[in-house]
Task: structure prediction
Amino acid sequence: MKTTPTPASAMPIPIPLELHQQLLLASIQSGFTQEVWEIGATAIRDWLARNAPDSFSMPVTAGYQWKHLFLPSGTVLRTVFNGKNFHAHVEGDRILHEGMSTTPSRFANAVGGVRRNAWKVIWVLLPNTSTWKLADELRPRRSPGRQKRRVSLAPISGQRTPVQSSRRRQR
Result:
């Protein structure tokens, strides 16, 4: 068992008992390669590196714009046909499938050989995530206030239609 002396200046951090027990078990299973406080310090350093103000530099700008859905570079697309998975990757501003640039629709239909709605058959794995989501679930929905308004072609009472107006001019 490796023992590393506890730092001279240390501060206790309360954590749930269940988490502490899981940590001890994982430490035992790994052969005590690190002390519990070392594992905690590593986890905190990792968290700080991900959440430090300097880590929020520029927003992602490279990626593929699929209508109103932006797929950042590094996104993986998957579709299934006849029980087999097929993948494409977003690299830079392009979607690549088998080394060729494609679109979501062409990818879905090239694999399936039939007319398929890409929104309904493509699964998306965004960078830094571990959950596949159906493209249609990621698609932005119109809010009720922003739906297209249907224009009524019926004239307002008392208003003449273009046909009525042209007949009147001809008289």
In short: The CA atoms of residues 25 and 42 lie 17 Å apart. The radius of gyration is 29 Å. Helices lie at 17-29, 36-51, 104-112, 118-121, 135-138, 162-170.
